[in-house]
Amino acid sequence: MTEPNRDPGLEALLELHGETMFVDDTGHWVKFVVVRTEVTPERPHGLSYSLTLHAPDGARLVGFDNAHPGGERRGPGGGQRAPHDHRHRLRTIRPYEYRDAAALLEDFWREVDQVLGEGGSVP
Fold first, then answer.
1. How many CA atoms lie within 13 A of 95 on its CB side?
2. Does 3 reside within a domain?
3. pLDDT value at position 79?
4. Is residue 1 one of the residues assigned to a domain?
5. What's the pTM value of the predicted model, to 2 decimals?
6. Cα–Cα distance for residue pair 6/49, rounded to 1 Å
7. How high does pLDDT run on average in the chain?
């Protein structure tokens, strides 16, 4: 019997914690930081994660994370936003809708493949 709301890909994602691996012969690499946390409004899935693709010189090209605020608000009230799921692509940050661990990995690798297919460099 399975637990309700069980995330079947979670253990595979957690096993990647601390892994760094080269993804092509030109020196691009990925890094995984994934740890369980208490469930909070900022981390309702009970994870702190950062999945990143880096250029050979170390520049981040792609990132999916919830490890820091997603940026500063503009206009009245300003200040920093609360941490939330988001993705980085080159120099942009966009919200990311976390569905489950397997979807996170699939979305990350899809973005990695797309960036590497475009030449994998920061314009």
1. 6
2. no
3. 44
4. no
5. 0.81
6. 18
7. 84
Domain count, the chain: 1
Q: How far is CA 47 from CA 11, 77, 98, 114, 117, in A?
A: 12, 28, 11, 26, 30
What is the C-alpha to C-alpha distance for residues 30 and 110, in angstroms, rounded to an integer? 13
Report yes or no: 102 and 10 within 8 Å, Cβ to Cβ: no
Q: Is residue 2 part of a domain?
A: no
Average pLDDT over residues 48-76: 80
Q: Which residue has the tokens 């170390």?
A: 58
R_g (Cα) of the chain, nearest Å? 15
pLDDT in tens, 100-113: 999 999 999 999 99
Would the pLDDT of 57 be above 50?
yes
Secondary structure of residue 78 in the 3-state scheme: coil
- Which is it for the CA torsion 96, 102, 103, 109, positive or negative? positive
Residue 57 lies in a domain: yes
Domain range holding 50? 10-69+83-116
